[in-house]
Amino acid sequence: MFNHSAFRLAKFSALIRHTLSASLCSALFVLPVAAVEFNTDMIDVEDRNNIDISQFKKKGHITPGQYLVSVQVNKNTLPQPLMMEWIATEGESGSLLCVNAEHLTRFGLDPDFISELRYLPNGKCLDLAAKPELLFALNKGTMVLSITVPQAWMKYQARNWTPPEFWDQGIAGVLLDYNLYASQYNPQGGEDSQNISAYGTLGFNLGAWRLRSDYQYNQDFRNGKSTGSDSSLARTYLYRPLPSLSSKLTLGQYDLSSDIFDTFHFSGASLESDESMLPPDLQGYAPQITGIAQTNAKVTVSQSGRILYQTTVAPGPFTITDLGETYQGQLDVVVEEEDGRKSTFQVGSSSIPFLTRKGQVRYKTSVGKPTETGHNDVNNPLFFTGELSWGWLSKVSLYGGTMLTADDYHAVTSGIGFNMDSFGSLSFDVTEAEATLRQEKDEKQRGFSYRVNYAKRFEETGSQITFAGYRFSDKEYVSMSEYLASREGDDSTTNEKESYVVSFNQYLESLSLNSYLNITRNTYWDNSSNTNYSFSISRNFDIGPFRGISASLALSRIRWDDSSENQVFFSLTLPLEQSRNLMYSYQRSGGNSASHMASYYDSSDRNNTWNLSASTTEEDLRHGEPSLRGGYQHYSPYGRLNMNGSVQPNQYRSISAGWNGSLTATRHGMSLHDYSPANNARMMVDADGVEGIEVNSSRTRTNAFGIAVVPSLSNYITSTIRVNSNTLPDGVDIENSVIRTTMTEGAIGYSKLNATKGYQIVGIVQQENGHYPPLGISVVDKASGREVGLIAEEGFVYLSGIQDDSTLRLTWADKTCEITPPNQSNLSGTAILLPCKTVH
Questions:
Q1: How much is the pTM?
Q2: Which CATH architecture has domain 62-155?
Q3: 415 pLDDT tier (thresholds 50, 70, 90)
Q4: Cβ neighbours of residue 455 closer than 8 Å, sequence gap 6 or more
Q5: Distances from the Cα of 486 to the Cαs of 157, 370, 395, 443, 478, in angstroms?
Q6: Are the beta carbons of 666 and 750 closer than 8 angstroms?
Q7: Which of 36-40, 417-421, 700-704, 795-799 has the lowest mean pLDDT?
Q8: Exposure of 716 by Cβ count < 10 A (0-12 exposed, 13-18 middle, 19+ buried)?
Q9: Which SS3 state, helix, strand or coil, does residue 460 take?
Q10: Where are the domains of the chain?
């Protein structure tokens, strides 16, 4: 009997359960290479003659045979375990891992490197003796085969990127991602108005296939009576990744994805290279949306009538940066204030077209019929579009494309792109289009459009992005969108002449200054021009004892219906203790009087944040009618709640609430969880029915069925998922607390935590004859067959996950004995005696 208080659960569990079986091997690996002799007196006398430890005399020895192992190559894990074989050799270790060309291909090694290798005389194992830099190491405790390969021998050279061999397609399952929003506005002496809206995605995964249907719903009320509603299935489509081609196949109702032509909704099929499968330096650039809200405003981002993003923002500047890189063309942004006023503007999401590695080809091709969002219109003509880029030189790409219809429209584009390394990327292209419009039945219209784009991603500063574009179209040029509008008899479309887009975001470290600029200007042959811009600068500084003071200035131009006005916003933020702060802001819009606002923010509880503010103009102050506003956000494992309210005496009252979340279900279980966009990967974690295990953070936690879903994993980028071991429920053990995975687009991953819940007991197992069971014998729960511990020296054992009234069984050689453990843990006391009664 001895006191074991120093052996806490986490350390002792790792020592006994996870590494005991490999401890002798690990110790011997650090000994000299020469054979050594061992004192077998350390082994129980009864079993000494039955144990052969000669295998441990050689460094790195693995008993010949086949083993199911998890494979890690340069810390990237293959999605599926492999059966690997070790064969006997005359070398210093006495055994050798048998690796063939197929294995090395699956490990992601370069085909040219593999072709240089030769097989051993047995004809099934490659001779790797001349490649000592290629290292293999098996951890027998975890059965993980770690492989270290020089980067030059790998098929892909990009850093911070996981090759396709390690991508996981996920499992079959159903998902529902939803966003709910409701608001009410009560003006003094006017009609009350209410609004309810929802949007999201319903999806189903089967193998590599993903079925998605985007839905949206909106209903308005006046004094509680409905004034109209609108609902639609904006898109319904089926797609699957094709990693071998770095491409994606899509079928159904979708939006044209093109780096060259304008986007539009269509029903048909497309096959295109997927940029997200490429290394980061060859990917596109995500749009960033900024603006200034005057009240608690609803911001909606849409394209072709389909809602992409919707949120509520507090008064002042807002920035939306999480739209991703999958959108092409112009995005429509609507900022709806509490009183119903709406400002609109557009943001360009174009990227540098098709910068391609030397000798490689990237492509996009689609065929179908243009349709309106949520509808099929068989009267529209069949169209085909194709575009490709060829890596002509190491830094130069040639690209082009065509758009054809079965009737009377066609367009052809050709261009060239340059990768200028630290100076960014540049492209130039020309498009010729020929069409017969509805108004000109007897005469074809032919014109040209010229475009130049420049972009640079500042990797050294994170997500800093620069994008600039210019396009000129002559008067006779017709885009596909204009052609389709003409067929519908819509003469209201404008004929674009020039468009400028400049987007710049840069942090100046020497001044601790962050700046952002976005300018969009469009001119037309038959209409007045319009210009939208937003500019902001912010700086952090210290004054005496006040640290981290922030000042920012934002300027923007917005449109109210058919008129434009400029906005100015200035703010000064003073941080307080424990994630609280005070803010003063000044805002002026057009010719309106200036508004002053004081706000208090509290985010000391990361799962519950709130704010209060009071604002007034000089006129409101004279009448004693300042505006009071408040907001509250709650983050739970099941979704997010957002509530906002405001009141101005003798003017109005307003309240709004939103909830977004997701549901994921597979054959292993289901879980409500935080919102995840439908085409982002997610990981289902199975804790064997154990509730309350935190994964990554307290916002993801296993439910009553032991299931949790980690949302919004990056597609084709390795994600690390960790169990919070410091907050495990009492009596719970986790075997694999860290999961590394790389998921394909829209995949539902699955991983078991191998969690056990029950009592933890430290004891000494002793047979009826006073002897101890042999070292390394497994202790198994008789009812479930689950291993609950391993015998150490002198019968010492750590048992975990012991259930009430359980019986534990030990079997070795021709002997079996059973233990009846107590129904309580003893981790804070001394090791107890556990008699093991012989079973005849």
A1: 0.74
A2: Roll (3.10)
A3: very high
A4: 285, 351, 352, 424, 425, 465, 466, 467, 468
A5: 49, 13, 41, 14, 10
A6: yes
A7: 36-40
A8: buried
A9: helix
A10: 1-54+758-840, 62-155, 667-756
